Amino acid sequence: MTLADAAEELVRLGTDFHRRSWMLGTSGNLSVVLARDPLRVAITASSIDKGRMHPRQILEIDNQGVMMRAAEGKPSAETLLHLEVIRSIGAGAVMHTHSVWTTVLSDYHHANGGFHIEGYEMLKGLEGVHTHEHREWIPVLDNNQDMSILAAQAQELFAAHSNIHGLLVRRHGMYTWGKDLATAARHVEILEFLMEAVGRRQMMEPQFS
Amino acid sequence: MTLADAAEELVRLGTDFHRRSWMLGTSGNLSVVLARDPLRVAITASSIDKGRMHPRQILEIDNQGVMMRAAEGKPSAETLLHLEVIRSIGAGAVMHTHSVWTTVLSDYHHANGGFHIEGYEMLKGLEGVHTHEHREWIPVLDNNQDMSILAAQAQELFAAHSNIHGLLVRRHGMYTWGKDLATAARHVEILEFLMEAVGRRQMMEPQFS
Amino acid sequence: MTLADAAEELVRLGTDFHRRSWMLGTSGNLSVVLARDPLRVAITASSIDKGRMHPRQILEIDNQGVMMRAAEGKPSAETLLHLEVIRSIGAGAVMHTHSVWTTVLSDYHHANGGFHIEGYEMLKGLEGVHTHEHREWIPVLDNNQDMSILAAQAQELFAAHSNIHGLLVRRHGMYTWGKDLATAARHVEILEFLMEAVGRRQMMEPQFS
Amino acid sequence: MTLADAAEELVRLGTDFHRRSWMLGTSGNLSVVLARDPLRVAITASSIDKGRMHPRQILEIDNQGVMMRAAEGKPSAETLLHLEVIRSIGAGAVMHTHSVWTTVLSDYHHANGGFHIEGYEMLKGLEGVHTHEHREWIPVLDNNQDMSILAAQAQELFAAHSNIHGLLVRRHGMYTWGKDLATAARHVEILEFLMEAVGRRQMMEPQFS
Predict the structure, then answer these.
(1) Which of the four pLDDT bands, split at 50, 70 and 90, describes residue D82?
(2) Scanning B54, C207, D144, D191, which has the fewest C-beta atoms within 10 Å of its C-beta?
């Protein structure tokens, strides 16, 4: 994938996620692997308005998060967590979104370190899941402005839970990923759907969990 | 109806239902009868992204679900349930959607095998219903990855309840149908509206059901 | 206003209200006065899909609801209630919509015959209201398939409450109106907003009303 | 910034906020500073439909709210509060919106004079906030049709709380601002997101606050 193709796709996805209220204001960032050896990644620049993105705001970085060519803006601190997901999981694309439901559930469940989503057909939209009789663990990390700490916690998490498809950061948002852009973008849709479904299910019957 | 016309209409409907969050990711499938004798049906291929559908992903199948001509993709296992609805009910089109409200209500009511929707004017949007003083039974089947079991349960259901307009599968979604595409698509809108209305009505007054 | 201009505006409004889920399926109807003496009214035909309206589906009727010229379709029974609002209130346009929140609140409050909305700034969007310190009565009529009964109940209501801006029919929807199309359409937006606000306010604190 | 550029941007923002249901009917108003010395401000005219705005409805006013050139319409009474924000805070743009969630929360919290939003990553979308460990005070003023009283209360508020980014008026809506239009518009998105998140968080667990 060329940087130009990646930039066009990331702008399309970011604009769509903004419209759906999953990346409001300057929140969130999206990345896709351009080459593996050596690693080169296309990623949204820091602090750009997701409702008015353009391709010049997509940066090309190396495996340390250093920019490889001139562009508009610079990488955000959260680039570290994108690179950790790419390294630990082998992901080809990483999506970091901020929706209302992921924010609410990350707060509600953080004391237990996360929660399970189980028995929903929509789980089959997650790569490698072939039955609704699947028990998906959604870990919740504490938020931290020091992204090296968050990245280290994510690394531990991936070592302990090799088969997760996303994670939440408390009162912050979601990270999900996939082997390629289409898979990662589908995981955003699937996980957002599941979050809203389990959130509304619980509100209908407060003693339910 | 030609396959080309059917493909165009199914893409239009699928794209619209994706936009409304009723067929996110690769979830759901839509079908329409092209000819009765012998039966030929146009149906969405398995595992296609409903946000980026194109007409080549609409398949023509026979009464066993076998593809009648080359196309992009293959039928999903849920084709069996579409064919059962077409046979048992005589439907001309079948819509299988996955919305948040149908998912939530299917779980809430599954222990009772379903629930009634009664007294709503919007029920008159269902074919053959001419007054709000109608009591519509919404059955809920347990989910199952073996579609031959689900199809057999649906067949029993249709024998016992000849006048239903849709059914839910637990934590999965809705099947509805109609004599033609326009009727089936209207039933999706009507039933989605009614699900949200009864869901919110109950949340306003938890002891209410 | 010519019938052609009225048809164009009613199609625009109906399409917009469908998109906002206030006139799903074939639900709802819209009308506007073309001339007063003798009365001629443009109104949406019965049972048309509000997502795919076109100007040929707008009918011209007289003060008895009789069609004045050939068109696609025929008047719905609810035309009687539109004509009652035009006669009793002197309205220049009438909007009948079916939203989730009006449906839910009409059911919740019907035992009291209605409810008040008071203290909201948005009330000033209703014609003739100049302060938030206004107490708007929202009457709820029982639903009835005999529109002559509903029209007679509305006539009584208008005699008793000359300053209302809309009414609900239980588990059915809303009627609102205005001196012209723009005012009536604004009343739909304003009342829908207020319904959602009072509905969510109450859900936040169940003992609250 | 010229009046023509300001008008184009205010129409774009108002149309977008209407589409998102934050400025329904004729509610709300938007302004931007054109020059500081002497002060000249572009502001939306009173009582215009936010779904059908056009640039001729954007007025140029001086520091007393007096119109500086002919245009369509006149300033609304709320212009006084815009000018107070511009003077007291030094804001370059002011946005006054009416959403469901700000309306609901303004009512719920008004007895305490406001509420805190704390610990959310999205707070970093507010100018000058660099960590989620921020405690943002959201003051709630009582509504009043005398805008000189509201403006005086806002002046006191700004003196006591120099670091707030917005305020609510009870059962009315939100005022927010920024150094320029893009910042003020981002603050609308960020605060609307946070209001919905804290509102839904509380509904999930009623004893929570």
Answers:
(1) very high
(2) C207
